[in-house]
Amino acid sequence: MYYVLSLQNKQRKSSSICPFVSEQVIDTLPAKSTGEHVYVEFRHERIAKNEMICRSQAFYQFMNQRRTLRFFSTDPVPIEVIQNCVLTAGTAPSGAHCQPWTFVIVKDKIIKTQLREVIENEERVNYDHRMNSDWIKDLGPLMGTLHVENEIVKPYIEEAPYIIIVLKQQYGLKNGKRIAHYYPMESVCIATGILLTAIHNANLVSLVSTPMGAENAIRSLCNRPDNERVLFFMPVGYPADNATVPYRNDEYLRKSIEDILYIV
Amino acid sequence: MYYVLSLQNKQRKSSSICPFVSEQVIDTLPAKSTGEHVYVEFRHERIAKNEMICRSQAFYQFMNQRRTLRFFSTDPVPIEVIQNCVLTAGTAPSGAHCQPWTFVIVKDKIIKTQLREVIENEERVNYDHRMNSDWIKDLGPLMGTLHVENEIVKPYIEEAPYIIIVLKQQYGLKNGKRIAHYYPMESVCIATGILLTAIHNANLVSLVSTPMGAENAIRSLCNRPDNERVLFFMPVGYPADNATVPYRNDEYLRKSIEDILYIV
């Protein structure tokens, strides 16, 4: 990715941002037609094999720096950054290209306070009734100072400048008519992986949380229709000055390539 | 991301790859302890707000170039690139940090031929019995010349130098003991979104497909245990010289920001 160069070299035009993927990908004249469907040539410029290796390794090192944060600064962040990250998530592939996702950016302080109340109350119920002791034990090390002696507090919901709510559209609505969505769960989660990458690329931190039990209340607070389901609740912003993350000892290290990759 | 600079400036050490995320994130001495759990300070260097905006916009433009491909070149690709992309996927967050994913890279020609046979046969059944007419109609425009006059062929399964099989671990196994996994579907799909980003960053193309009906046969061909489920089947490589992609007319364009993003 050459865009850092382009930032430092303003006279370059934006097409120099990704010189190895032809701008022609964004559509030129139709190249081929099959029945009623029209296709365009996909133009692609190869790079040297050693550059591919370097690029892939550097991107791994870059992404391996990402940590999930639970301590956010209240400092403001330009909303354009968050909007660009959401647009990037929207480039994800999806079942039959249905793009079954909705993203809500919450910046309103009052709504954030209401979200915190709903989520902390439901989390109390989760810990007391919905989650088993193994689950609570497994989560313990990740919670830092937020869950101490049975106390559950999530101040970051009010402290982070933005919350991104990721919703899955069970079905679509077009001119009031239902349209089928295929693999919406898989599609929206893939988009969320791209969203996380974009947030990290923007030098911000986040937390992907699943607000168990609070989904409908969150959807109502965000004023979303009932063909949508809340999947993820993601505070986004700068880390707090005193932010900590779990120490990665043998138990919490990321798995090694031998543990996750097999070649046949 | 400065790693392109670092590629062009070999004497820089790899820590110069992401100057804005401190290497200290990869763990220094414990900073804080809560009961039995140990935490480290999360160090983070901010960048200028206008740089965040440029970076996020450039990354969006870069990712918006990605297209799903169904026509692959047989040209070889260094396996290190694919390994790095898988390692990058492995940096994804996951429920209680269980990392419930397995990736299999298929490079063996015979196995690829067997995979093609299994998948084409099941796809025939999908079209005849498992999918309704709307679904088949919705997929039509995406299939290009592969599904013409009821003929279903997937030559790319044999042509692509690698197939990445993404598997979800329903539960983990540690020293023969079952360990619970939380939100494995969400976690593995998020990792797949990061995998796709890494493949695009490496200047390669892919197709995220869901091999309906063939999951168990694929798992057996990859010799994976039955706590794992095949989620995605992803050929990876260079596009074929004559590769085409669906023409993005009004109907197939990516949704606009107004269609996917709401701010409250």
From TrEMBL, chains A, B:
<dbReference type="InterPro" id="IPR029479">
    <property type="entry name" value="Nitroreductase"/>
</dbReference>
<dbReference type="GO" id="GO:0005886">
    <property type="term" value="C:plasma membrane"/>
</dbReference>
<keyword id="KW-0560">Oxidoreductase</keyword>
<dbReference type="InterPro" id="IPR000415">
    <property type="entry name" value="Nitroreductase-like"/>
</dbReference>
<dbReference type="Pfam" id="PF00881">
    <property type="entry name" value="Nitroreductase"/>
</dbReference>
<dbReference type="GO" id="GO:0006570">
    <property type="term" value="P:tyrosine metabolic process"/>
</dbReference>
<dbReference type="InterPro" id="IPR050627">
    <property type="entry name" value="Nitroreductase/BluB"/>
</dbReference>
<protein>
    <recommendedName>
        <fullName>Nitroreductase domain-containing protein</fullName>
    </recommendedName>
</protein>
<dbReference type="GO" id="GO:0140616">
    <property type="term" value="F:iodotyrosine deiodinase activity"/>
</dbReference>
<keyword id="KW-0285">Flavoprotein</keyword>
<keyword id="KW-0288">FMN</keyword>
<comment type="similarity">
    <text>Belongs to the nitroreductase family.</text>
</comment>
<feature type="domain" description="Nitroreductase">
    <location>
        <begin position="65"/>
        <end position="238"/>
    </location>
</feature>
